[in-house]
Amino acid sequence: MDFEIVIGLEVHAQMNTKSKIFCGCSTEFGAPPNTHTCPVCLGMPGSLPVLNRQVVEAAIKLALATDSTINQENIFARKNYFYPDLPKGYQISQFELPIAEHGKLEIEVEGTKKTIGITRIHMEEDAGKLVHDELEPVSHVDLNRTGTPLLEIVSEPDLRSPAEATAYLKKLHAIVRYLDICDGNMQEGSFRCDANISLRPVGQEEFGIRTELKNMNSFKNVQLAMEYEVRRQRDVLLDGGRVIQQTLLWNPDKAQTETMRGKEEAHDYRYFPDPDLVPVVVDQDWISTVAAGLPELPDHRRRRFCEELGLNDYDAEILTSSRELADYFELALAEYGNAKKLGNFMGTELLREYGAEEIEACPVRPSQLARLLKMIEDNTISGKIAKTVFAEMLDKGQDPEVIVKEKGLVQMSDEGELQAMVREIIAANQEQAQQFRDGKTKVMGFFVGQLMQRTKGKANPKLANKLFQQELNTP
C-alpha cells in the first residue's frame, strides 16, 4: 500500500521587542534565572496585563508579508493547563478571533512551485523553562522567558513531504528576519516549530491519525525528525497497527522520536476570552502606516536581482537568503558594478567563511570587497592573488591596497619581462613544447603553471597565455 504524507506546521516566532508582551520586564536572553520577572508575568493577584503595541505591529507586518487577512477586531483568550513553567495556570493567547487568518506562502522544491496556506497568525505569551539537573533527579524552573511575546503561525495541512515542510520553514524564517521582528535563532528557541504529521492511503480524502513532533532546533533536525516519523508511521500501518495520537519529542542524539504525552485537542484547554484585556482594534490607518514601512521582501528582491542584475536563480536565491547578505551585496555592487562577478566571489569565498546570517560579523566591509575586485579588473592583481589577499583581509581587516603593497603582490604585466621568462621555460621543456605543436593543447596549463611558479603567482594569466601561444606557434 502506498501512502500520502500530510504535514502541517505550527511555528512560534519570538518577537525581538525589548520588553515582554504584557509587562515591562526585559526579554534579554541569558540573564540569571528568575531575574526578569514581575508580578504581572508571574500572575500575582491584583496585577493586570497591558498589551505591548510593538507586538501588534509585528503581527501586522507578518500578516501583510504573507497575504493574510487582518481581523480589525481580535481578542485575547486564556488557554488553561497546568505545568510547572506556567505560573498563572493559563497562557494568554488568541483563539476564536486571532489577529490574522487565511494567508499563504509560495515555496519551491526541486524546481516545482507550490502555494501553502496559512490558517492563522496569533499573538501569545511564552511559558517559562524547566532546567533539568544533570546530577540530581530534580528540575528547576526559570521564569525569565514567561511573558516573552510570540507570534504563532499555523499552516494548512498542505505540505506533502519533509522537504516541502523544510522549504516552508526556511521561507518563513527569512521573512521574519527581513521584517526584523524576530532574530530567528533556533538554538536559543526564538524560532521553533511543531510538526503535525499523518499518513493516509493514496486517494483517501480523510486525514489519518496525526502525531505532533516537538524539540526540533535546526532545519536539519526538522527534516531528519519528520523523515523518521514518516518511516515510523508507515511501518506501523504496514504491519497492520494503528497510529496513536500523541506528542513526540525528537532525540537528536539517538536520531529517533520519543513519546512525551497524549495529544491534546482545543477543548482540553478550556479557552475563554481573557477578562483583563480589551479587544484589540486594528483600523485601516494603522495597517496602512505599517505597510508603508515594510522592507523589500526576499521573493521580490530575488526577482529583482534576476531581472535587473542578470543573476541566475541559484545565485539570486543564495544572495537573498538573508537580509544582511543581500544588503552587503548591494552595498558592494554600488561601488563595483559587476553583479555576476561579485555574486560569484561572495558565493565561493565569502560564504565559505561566514554564513548568510553571520555576515555582519565579517571584518571585510562591502567597500573593501568592491575595491579588491576592482584590482582584478584593472590587472593590478590576478584572481588567484585576490583570494590570498581576501584571506588576509579576513584575518587582519586591512584594506586590499595595503596588503597588496606590503606583500609585493602587484601583478606582473610587463610584456618584455614575461616574454623572456616564457622563452626560457619553453627552451627548458622541449618535449612538452613538441606535444603542444602536435595538437595536445592541454599542455598549455603546464607552461602557464611553470611561469606562475617562477613569478610566485604574480604573472598576468591572460598575457601569459598569449605569450606562450605566440612563442609555441612560432617556427
Could you characterize what this model shows?
The radius of gyration is 29 Å and the shape is elongated. With 475 residues, the chain is of the alpha+beta class. The protein folds into three domains: 3-286, no CATH class; 314-406, no CATH class; 415-472, Arc Repressor Mutant, subunit A. A nine-stranded mixed β-sheet has the order 2-6-7-10-1-11-12-13-14. The chain has a three-stranded antiparallel β-sheet with strand order 5-4-15, with no helix packed on it. It has 15 helices and 16 strands. 36% of the residues are buried. A hairpin with a 6-residue loop joins strand 8 (129-132) and strand 9. The longest helix is centred in the middle third of the chain and has 20 residues, at 219-238.
β-strand amount: 15-25%
Rg, Å, rounded: 29 Å
Q: How many domain modules?
A: 3
The DSSP helix count reads: 15
Specify the overall morphology.
elongated
In this structure, how is the largest beta sheet organized?
9 strands, mixed
**Approximately how much helix is present in the residues?**
25-40%
Descriptive keywords:
single chain; 475 residues; alpha+beta; Arc Repressor Mutant, subunit A; 3 domains; 9-stranded mixed sheet; 3-stranded antiparallel sheet; 16 strands
Provide a quick synopsis of the model.
This protein has 475 residues and is an alpha+beta fold. It has three domains: 3-286, no CATH class; 314-406, no CATH class; 415-472, Arc Repressor Mutant, subunit A (Orthogonal Bundle).
SSE topology:
Elements: E1 3-14, H1 53-65, E2 69-70, E3 73-74, E4 77-80, E5 90-93, E6 100-109, E7 112-125, E8 129-132, E9 139-142, E10 149-155, H2 162-178, E11 191-201, E12 211-216, H3 219-238, E13 246-251, E14 256-262, E15 272-273, E16 280-281, H4 284-292, H5 298-309, H6 313-319, H7 323-336, H8 339-353, H9 366-377, H10 383-396, H11 400-406, H12 415-428, H13 430-437, H14 444-454, H15 461-472
Parallel strand pairs: 12-13
Antiparallel strand pairs: 1-10, 1-11, 2-6, 3-16, 4-5, 4-15, 6-7, 7-10, 8-9, 11-12, 13-14
Helix pairs in contact: 2-3, 5-6, 6-8, 7-8, 7-9, 9-10, 12-14, 12-15, 14-15
